[in-house]
UniProtKB/TrEMBL annotation:
Upper lineage: Bacteria, Pseudomonadati, Bacteroidota, Flavobacteriia, Flavobacteriales
InterPro entries: PRib_PP_synth_CS, Pribosyltran_N, PRTase-like, PRTase_dom, Rib-P_diPkinase
CDD domains for the chain: PRTases_typeI
Name used for this protein in its record: ribose-phosphate diphosphokinase
One Pfam family this sequence matches: Pribosyl_synth
Ribose-phosphate pyrophosphokinase N-terminal domain span: 9-123
Molecular-function GO terms, alphabetical: ATP binding; kinase activity; magnesium ion binding; ribose phosphate diphosphokinase activity
């Protein structure tokens, strides 16, 4: 019996063009044609230059700052919906605004929930993302969410290093679950950093829970923003007798003086994915591509196959 599943169509938002090209190549399909018209005041309008009627459409775009990246994803979802696409999947390697996942003080928004709602309103019928800042964000959606783990691409690299006396570390208490998952996969010890913040992105105090003496330490986190926490943790660990400190961070947001901090830090290297394009070159940053992971999951989703193997550390 012939295959009745029509070919999927893959499109990209502007900010994720390079990653989308890698994903499309790994998937085995060309990127769809999209043009974006820009008005003199900065307003823009994406347009699909081919029919998507009745098709499964994958729209690839991370929603890191600024807000135009999220807006472009929303406009493309809306355009696909109005063009009668049958299934519209927002492929968001980095789901932005995720740090605002709860009310941590009075009179503040829950931005992650708001973004989930507007993505669905715009037309998304499915979300594929990776290493959310908080797992419970999946519950903010009424549509299916495929939450992938970057450990799928990081663990092979980590094993290739053949590090003796390996210890996995979390830069804060919130990341302890992720650290324990990596330590289980690597059969290593775990260390947790306890930090206190004076305000957002400013650390006033940091202590270690565990021993790093004579250890090769690998910090794991979902994202790196200003790099203040990672570089501070590396300094503390080296002062406590660690042999080396590396960091694995899925999403390289890298704002402010992050690149300078990393370059001048005691971190041996920072390993990241290409979920967000790097703004500049840094000798200490190594990029491990997540393109094959997304291409495989997209193919499985399109062909109604299980993706449960991608949720195993």
């Amino acid at each position: 019996m012939p295959n009745l599943i029509p070919e999927a169509k893959i499109f990209n938002c502007t900010q994720s063009r390079e990653l989308a090209e890698k994903i499309a190549a790994a998937y085995g399909a060309p990127l769809g044609k999209v043009i974006t018209s820009t008005y003199s005041d900065g307003e823009f309008q994406p347009s699909f230059e081919e029919s998507v009627r009745g098709s499964r459409v994958f729209i690839i775009g991370s929603t890191h700052p600024g807000a135009d990246h999220l807006m472009e994803m929303l406009l493309m979802l809306d355009a696909a919906k109005r063009a009668s696409a049958r299934h519209i999947t927002a492929v968001m390697p980095y789901f932005g605004w995720a740090r605002q996942d709860r009310k941590d003080k009075p009179r503040v928004p829950i931005a992650a929930k708001m973004v989930a709602s507007i993505l669905e309103t715009a037309g998304a019928t499915r979300i594929i993302t990776m290493d959310l800042h908080a797992d419970q964000i999946q519950g903010f959606f009424e549509k299916p969410v495929d939450h992938l783990f970057a450990s799928t691409v990081f663990l092979p690299y980590l094993r290739s290093l053949n590090l003796d006396n390996l210890t996995i570390a979390s830069p804060d208490m919130g990341g302890s679950k992720r650290a324990y998952a990596y330590s289980k996969a690597m059969e290593s010890d775990v260390v947790i950093c306890y930090k206190q913040r004076a305000k957002a992105n400013v650390i006033s105090h940091m202590e270690l829970i565990g021993d790093v003496t004579g250890k090769n330490v690998v910090l794991v986190d979902d994202m790196v923003d200003t790099a203040g926490t990672l570089t501070k943790a590396a300094d503390v660990m080296m002062a406590k007798g660690a042999i080396s400190v590396r960091a694995i961070c899925t999403h390289p947001v890298l704002s402010g003086d992050a690149y300078k901090r990393i370059e001048n830090s005691q971190l041996l290297e920072l390993i990241v994915t290409d979920s967000i394009p790097l703004k500049q070159k840094c000798d200490k940053i190594r990029v491990v591509s997540c393109a094959d992971l997304f291409a495989d999951v997209m193919s499985r989703v399109h062909n109604n196959k299980s993706i449960s193997s991608k949720f195993i550390m």
